[in-house]
Fold these 2 entries.
Entry 1:
Amino acid sequence: MAFAEKLKALRQKNNMSQEFVAQRINVARSTIAGYETKNRQPSHEKLVAFSNLFHVPVDYLLDGTHSDSISLDESRADSIDAQNLLVRYYRLSTRSQEDLLKHLHLLELQDEELNN
């Protein structure tokens, strides 16, 4: 699977529009469309941005082989709630994302205490 196909598949699997992805990596929507139609290739910096956005290694984006492990493990990828949560997380500011991760960590600690 080529980069263009992987980008489109990742974007659709995570319920993200071209506009949303473009805003997250600081390019025009038409640039994302160009990447998805094989007309354009991203710079190294943009590859890293895509990697961070979709939580996949850069190697996955560049590798010509197909892999089913896109961004969430398959057991959770089918869950609409998990996908919605991921999309909503990406829409938050960096500061809010950091705060959310701190809260999740606290909840995990609470769960550990309850289970022990």
Entry 2:
Amino acid sequence: MKRLLLIAPLAPTSLFGTDFHFRLPCLSLLKVAALTPAGWEVTILDEATQPIDFDQSADLVGITAMTCTAPRAYEIADRFRREDIPVVMGGMHPSSLPDEALNHADSVVIGEAEGIWPQVLADVERGELQPVYRHTDGPPSLDRLPAPNWELYRGRGCLPVHFVETTRGCPLDCEFCAVTSFFGGRYRGRPLQDVLAELRNRRPFPGFVLKNLVFFVDDNIVGNRAYARELLHALAELKIQWLGHASVNLASDPEILKLCRRSGCLGVLIGFETLSPETMQSIGKKSRLRMEYLDAIQKIHDHGIGIDGSFVFGFDTDDEGVFDRTLDFVTRAKIEIPYFSILTPYPGTRLHERLAREQRILHRDWSLYDTSHVVIQPRRLTTDQLQEGYLRVFREAYSPSCLAARMRETTSCRPLFVPMNFGFRDGVEKLARDFFPASINVTRAAPNAITPHAVPA
């Protein structure tokens, strides 16, 4: 029996560190483990849940890496390779920069592992590991994917939620996003019967206040409306409660909204990114929404569905007022969980290519590419204004007064969103203490008058 170690490194300055209240399992490694053929003993080492024991033996180490975890991934790979243990790397960052990753790994899997991983292991057994593996005939099929073995994460203190994938890919191709280049420019759906079988066979979580909670990891669970209707009708029969990513365009489809609520939807994560139509056009973010954001949010709230809304600071059109405008909007819209990021040019994105041409990338210390640090030269802000404005808005959004204003009249699931707010508040305060000056002023300027924003069709 050969031994395989699958490793998820931890970003050194991540908001979601080892002491974050809501630890999430690494679904990508669970999927790789499920693809591993018999004859291999698999162990998952996730630094968010446990330290790595470098003294243990293995026949192969597999490491997944995002950009902000790449330096730690390389450090881990170097340690194991010094013990003559071969290392294979995969994930978003090695797929974008395979030559860089090969300075620390024996092999790189570019793109998705399905259809490739068994070949990698067969080559290891023959002593013929290749430096690069990639799909040459398009994205792999999502038919009959093996279900993850959640026992590999038992006892790790992770959030008791089932993480399930129904689709991959995204046709929007936003300038700053790597999803399209990694997963393809169209929605690819798993067979509905496969998804339902995985949900029916999910493990129980005894003692958790929210029973049968599922998180759908798709980038937009309602992106393919025909597929979504079938899925939502089926979910209603399973009597689950669920969260997932969705576009704000969800609000323009009354049938889908009703199906979401009937099927057990508690909340959706929506990437608003910006409130400015000018900014949205400049980054290539497409939307068919023909109503104001505030109206769209109200329609979603009217169905008892909460919103985790994400916003990005640092676009070329952002000025000093963007922080207060965004915070005022979040409060007025009563967004249950606001999340803020600093614009980050990930390798493999059109944003990275453009800012590199314009010589506006300040450095390539990948550990700081975590959306909490400024790594570009903004156009209308100084780097200090962007850094401090980001932190000030994040802290203010989770202050007691703002939290109360957002949650006071919510019709969404309080047992879910209230604890999430306090968990995020603790995480943001830790980020501020550990990595930014304690002198940053969190007292906000007088609120600007808010103008409801519409997204151009």
